Structure formats: structure tokens, C-alpha cells
């Protein structure tokens, strides 16, 4: 982004009404794939879009607004995908969003390739947290399947729930009800690593 645009973003005033907030969120959504933890930063702002929301923004929404502005001006440089490099998919789920990062390791440094986010449908919001994490993994695998299917060796999925390591066991896969999920996963070669809390 050129310096003039960066300065315009830094000077963007906090939304004072619904129309101004919609304008900022429209801009933000266009660039969401470049911002890590975008879903976490946007949640309190999107909740301000409700019909009877108060303006000016509350303290939490205002804090997220400023974090997003800063993220736009300091976004990491995304690398090009290289199928010969070790690949990592990091997934996380919360009560309001699924997030994922596709990265590759080069010279012992992890470089982001793409960021992704997904807002679950209302039924999915009722899932247990390990099911939400599983949903996030499947969503990320489907989103980046063109990259992941081209890999000559297994990639790694980093998640914060160790119970998901059971997910790829043959016992689990035989019990999977959605046949589409089972057959999709048969083409993917991955290993899970649980992150410490």
C-alpha cells in the first residue's frame, strides 16, 4: 500500500453513525485476507451494526477499530506458495468466528501465505469447542485444497485442542457420518500438533 493510502487509513475517524461504520467495514472486509486475527478484531464492530446500537462506539469497539487501523498499516508481507516447502495450517475457533493461517517454513522462518476467516452459521455456534475446532480445520482444508493437494509430503495442522489428534485416526474416520468429509480427508495428508494453552 502506498504511503498516501496508509496516511488516509491512519487519519480515518472513528465511526459516529451506522453509515460511517458500514463504510469502514466495507473497506476492512476488502483487505481481510491480509490481516491476522481479523475475525477477532472485527467482532465487536460488526455487533455495532445491529439496529439499536449506540454511537459513538463503546470502548471495546473503539479499541478494535484502532487495532484494525494499525493492522492495515503494518500487515505482514504474504509469500508465494511453494509446494516444495514445509507447510503449516494454523486453525482456531471461538464463539463467534473460525480463523486460519496458511504458512510455509523457509530458512527456519515461518512466512504467511494466506489468512482466512469464516463466520459460522447459527447452528454451528452451538457446537462444542472441539467440534468448532474441527469445523475450522475442515473449512481451512477446503479453502486451501488446491495448495494442500499439490504437496508431496504431509503438512502440519496446529490447533489448540489436543483431542483433535484423535480426529485423523482410522477409528474416527470410519465413524464419520458425512461421507463427503471422509472421502475428502482421504486425499489430504496431514498431521496434528496441539499448541500448549
UniProtKB/TrEMBL annotation:
Q: Which CDD domains match?
A: RNase_HI_RT_Ty3
Tell me the domain of life: Eukaryota
Entry-linked Pfam families: RT_RNaseH_2
Reverse transcriptase/retrotransposon-derived protein RNase H-like domain span: 58-150
Q: What is this protein called?
A: Reverse transcriptase/retrotransposon-derived protein RNase H-like domain-containing protein
Report the source organism: Austropuccinia psidii MF-1
